[in-house]
Every structure is written in structure tokens, then in C-alpha cells.
């Protein structure tokens, strides 16, 4: 594979007025002042958006009608609309395809566990990282999501399910550290006591390893969990499946996560998608164990979810268990993450891709 220079610079949201649902409370106060409204309106509006999770100004019953009209004209609530949904027959998993205000579509997943509801959100429309086994990157990157668009996925799902969301994983479409500023703003708003007040400890951000931004994130000293998508124990093997590995070596990624641990004290998660005949031999598990030796970490093994555009097969159950045993025998804790809701089985980004293809009158 060529050394694709995919990740120079930040992918930016087009310069535009920040939408009202992406403002923090103090910015909301400044906006009210600027618009000539009393500042106490700021807490009311902020509460309607981030605590009551309303989707329109009409629902803000303690705000004067004229003010609601003014705001909805000048500061429309971004929001999103569900265009497709699949519920697993066991009732534990639902996948949603949402349309954004500008017509682009994204995907989110609700997973009900006994310890609470977890939502997996997208951070970008598409992705430019090019991981070979991933459906989300097939159409490239269209744009970053704003903080409010990341929140809206959670708000909409909580509204629909009528149950509190307790955990959030940023593991859907997109590379969160390629959308750094909006990601950090999203975390600030999601954990705000005037909003959903989700604990930082209940948030996981997964990255393919954008090294400079791991350092930036570490310096913020958040208590979130950082998950690193490793998928191979050496640079050579990693480059075959992840173009980002041309840009940053495993050594650089490891140095960055050591720094992350030093700053935050948070145990690191590693994601390792098992692809039959590619990265699943017991020797690869040994190499992985050697690489991770002495680190405060945990490995999530994910049998790769095949996508029709590529010829990858997942490792069988026995192979997965063997890989896990090798890690454990070398003191590395590992869990196998099997896709929940097998009957709506759609790998990361597949449902969205299917929807887009259908709209174009293409495949499926
Ligand atoms: N860009 C981020 C987050 C999105 S993907 C990252 O790379 O971490 C979330 C996880 O799912 C990553 O570990 C990714 O490599 C993995 N993944 C994507 N497609 C997959 C597939 N078809 N099968 C198994 N894992 C997959």
C-alpha cells in the first residue's frame, strides 16, 4: 500500500457561527447579552437543550413566544432525524441512521447492558483514515461533526428509549482525534452538571493513534478511557491494514500512551480486531503480549466483522480463544467483544453505507 498522506493538518469544520446547542453555559450567557435578552434566559435555554433534551424552541414553554421565534430564526437548533433503525430481536441493540440538517447521514448504536445503557456515537461524517476492514472509511471524509451533532445522537436515543444513557463510546464512524476541538467541547457539555451530567469515567474515546493529539488529550487530564486501535503488533503488519501506521510508528503510539497514563492515571484499552490468516496467529498474540508487557492496559479482541467490499474473514471462536489464552498466560488481561444483536449484524458504518447506496439507487 502507498504511503498515503492522510492526516496532515486538522480536518476542519467550515468556519461558521457556532450553533446554539454547541455553546457552553458561559458562552450562552454572552450570547443572550449580545442579543439583548436577560442573562437568566441562558440557564433556561441551556437546560431545555441539554437537560430536557427538547428538539424545538416550541417546547421551551417558559420562554416568551417572540424570543423563541427570534432565536429559531437566527439560531436554529441543529438536531437530526432518524431515517433508518434496526432493532435486534433480543431487544438489546438498536442501530440508528440519522440525517443531519444538511442532509448528510451518520450512524449510532444503542446497547442495553445490565449495568446501563451505552450509546456508540459517530464523530465525523465518514472518515479519512482508510483502515482496510472498516466500512466507515470507504466513502472518505465528508466533514467533521459539531459538538452538538455528537450530543444530538445521545439526546435523540435517550428521548426515544425513555431510559437514561449512562455510558458513551466514541467508536462509531470517524476518527475522534481528527476532530479534536469539537470532541473536547462535546465531552465538556456531556459531563456538565447542568446537562446530562455523565461521568468522564463513563466515556470512552477510540482512536487509530493520532499521536500529537493523544499528547494534547493527555494534557487536559480528563478521566475518560482512551482506546487505541492497534490491530497488529508490528509496524509492518499494521501498515497492511491501517494507513495511519505509515504516519506514526507503534513506538510513537506507545510513548504517547505512556504519557497519557502518566498524566491521567487511566488504564489504556487496546482494540485488536482479529482477521483470519492476517493477524490472528498465536505468535502474533505473543508479539502483542511482549509489546504491552508492564503496561496498565486491557485488550479487547473483536472478531472482524466482514464487509462486502473486502475479502476479510473473522477468526473462528477457537482461534479467538487461543489468542486470548496466549495473552492471558503472559499476564495481559483480555476480553472478547462479540457484536451484540447478531441479527442486525452490520459492521461499523455498514448501515450508513447501505442507506447512502440505496439513496443513490446503487447496490442493495
Ligand atoms: N477511528 C476510531 C474509532 C472508530 S472505529 C478508531 O480507529 O479507533 C471503532 C473500532 O472498531 C476501531 O477499533 C476499529 O478499528 C474497529 N472496526 C472498524 N471496522 C471494523 C470491522 N469491520 N470489524 C471489526 N472491527 C472494526
How would you describe what is shown here?
The chain has 364 residues and is of the alpha/beta class. It folds into 2 domains: 55 residues, Orthogonal Bundle (DNA polymerase, domain 1); 280 residues, Aldolase class I (TIM Barrel, Alpha-Beta Barrel). Helix 4 packs across helix 5. Bound molecules: S-adenosyl-L-homocysteine (SAH).
CATH class of the largest domain: Alpha Beta
Quaternary arrangement of the chains shown?
A: single chain
Q: Number of helical segments?
A: 12
Poorly predicted runs are 1-6
SSE-based structural type: alpha/beta
Distance between the termini: 29 Å
Indicate the percent of residues in helices.
25-40%
By CATH, the superfamily of the largest domain comes out as Aldolase class I
Cα-atom Rg, whole angstroms? 21 Å
Bound compounds, each kind once, are:
S-adenosyl-L-homocysteine
Largest sheet: 10 strands, mixed
The number of distinct structural domains comes to 2
The CATH architecture of the largest domain would be Alpha-Beta Barrel
Mean pLDDT: 92
CATH topology description of the largest domain: TIM Barrel
Rough shape? globular
Brief synopsis:
By secondary structure, the protein is α/β, with parallel strands linked by helices. The chain contains twelve helices and twelve strands. The chain is 35% helix and 19% strand.
List the keywords:
364 residues, alpha/beta, DNA polymerase, domain 1, TIM Barrel, ten-stranded mixed β-sheet, 12 helices, 19% strand, globular, binds S-adenosyl-L-homocysteine
